[in-house]
Amino acid sequence: MADKQMTANQTGEWGQFWEASYLSPSPQFMAWQIDLDGQPGFADELRSATGRRHSCISGAAHAANVSNGTFDECEFRHFSLEKCSFTSVIFERCRFTSATFNSVKFSKCTFSKSHFLHVHFHECQFIDCQFINLSASAEHLSFGSTSIPARAFIGALMTNVEALPPTYTEDHQQHRLLRDKANLAWRIFSSNERNGDIDLHSEAYREFLLQDLKWRIANAAYVTRMDSKSVRIREKRREFKYLLSRFRYKTDKAFLMLAGLITDWGRSPARAFAGLFAVIAGFSVAYAWLATSGGWQDFFGSLPTAFVKSFSNTLVFGYSVYATNPQSDLDGILMALNAGLGLLWYSLVIGALAQRAVR
Predict the structure, then answer these.
(1) In a 3-state reduction of DSSP, which class is residue 283?
(2) How far apart (Å, rounded) are the C-alpha atoms in residues 84 and 99?
(3) Considering the domain boundaries, does residue 153 fall inside one?
(4) What is the pLDDT of residues 99-131, one digit of tens each?
(5) What are the distances in angstroms from CA 270 to CA 75, 236, 267, 312, 352?
């Protein structure tokens, strides 16, 4: 059973100023030591009318199933759970300073204004959970074979700027947040690689690529702004370098978004095949229209030949045959565009198929 004991009054701050759960002054906490092995006490106490508030929770629990409870302004310190489940539990302004979760399932839970420091999730599941205004340590929060929606978790990450010390700026904190998001997105992607959910894996892949590009663009701009202004010619070179980097990363992002749209970020080879067939059909119509001297009958009569031409150019292997003898300048331009789009779609189809085969 839980052993409750009043701690000494705490003064000063609770957590670091940039954490989502930061409070100043710090509230008083009750120490709640748990040491359960399938006993009902942990779940029973949580189901009380008010749930747990201002508790410093430590200890370990095994095979505890908790539902419809609330942790409000609680700290989890030297805390370990194994083979437990939480259903419709609310974690409001909580600090997970040192916690380990092994084979724990969170279903329809809400994490709001909470901070994750030295926390490890191993073979855990987050099912239909909500994440609202969270902060996390990119160096110490880790995931191992854990199923977690990357877009929802990364999108909820923020930095607290309401209590900034004089020596820090909001711009600096937002810059660090983008770096942390990229690092955590990589950790979630690596974790989701080891589970069988193709949707979570594809979403994590998308989130990592986009967050990494956002960080690179922001980092180039931030270094430029912080650079020395004593030499004017150096500023211009730095600004040009930033603009060049921004253009390159923006171009990368545009191609990534296009590839993601075509393949649904690796989820759907069928969508990529549909795009490939659309390219073949579209250019078949275009070639038939160019070859038509007049009338619909002539147009439909040219379609079979136009289809073979479009198919060959789209899959590239026939481009050299047709490109040496274009019917007109417009036909030559169409064939070059056809081959370029075909190569793009062909590479995306192969990539999507390879990803599904590996998965």
Answers:
(1) helix
(2) 14
(3) no
(4) 999 999 999 999 999 999 999 999 999 999 999
(5) 48, 48, 9, 21, 9
Domain range enclosing 279? 269-358
- Is residue 276 domain-shared with residue 327, that is, in the same domain? yes
Q: Domains in the chain: how many in total? A: 3
The answer to whether the beta carbons of residues 114 and 91 sit under 8 Å apart is yes
The residues near 187 (Cβ < 8 Å, ≥ 6 apart) are 138, 141, 142, 143
- pLDDT over 70 percentage in the chain: 82
Closest CA to 317 of 303, 338, 331: 338
Q: Are 164 and 144 in contact (CB under 8 A)?
A: no
Do 296 and 240 fall into the same domain?
no
- By mean pLDDT, which of 36-40, 192-196, 253-257, 298-302 is the weakest? 36-40
In sequence order, which ranges of the chain are alpha helices (DSSP H)?
41-46, 150-156, 170-192, 198-226, 232-263, 269-291, 296-314, 319-323, 329-358
Q: What is the Cα–Cα distance from 218 to 289, expressed in whole angstroms?
A: 48
Please tell me whether residues 187 and 245 are part of one structural domain. Answer: yes
Among residues 237, 260, 283, the one where a domain terminates is: 260
pLDDT tens digits, residue range 266-311? 777 777 788 788 888 998 998 888 887 656 667 777 888 888 888 8
**Range picked from 66-75, 288-297, 349-358 for highest mean pLDDT:** 66-75
Contact status, residue 13 vs residue 24, Cβ threshold 8 Å: yes
* Residue linked to tokens 């922001």: 218
29 in Cβ contact with 55 (< 8 Å): yes
The CATH number for 297's domain is: 1.10.287
Cα–Cα distance, 131 to 181 (Å, whole number): 14
Answer yes or no: is pLDDT of 25 > 80. yes
Residues 2, 118, single domain; the answer is yes
Q: Which of 219, 239, 260 is the last residue of a domain?
A: 260
Q: What pLDDT, on a 0 to 100 scale, did the predictor assign at position 223?
A: 63
> What is the pTM for the complete model shown?
0.75
Supply the DSSP string of 284-309, one letter for each residue.
Answer: HHHHHHHH--SSHHHHHHHHHHHHHH
Q: Across-strand partners of 205?
A: none
